[in-house]
Give the backbone structure.
Amino acid sequence: MRRNRRKCSRVWLYRGSGILAGILCLAAGVWLGQSESVWIKGIYICLECIGIG
């Protein structure tokens, strides 16, 4: 049982590290002003798929 507990804690450590890295990358993108660029590209892709643009 002790071995299973260690494995579970490692899984949570890896998940937590991945979530933290994602949040840091998201914050860095917002800090550098890339959110507007991504938003505009998303709008263009959406309009092309729907066929409006």
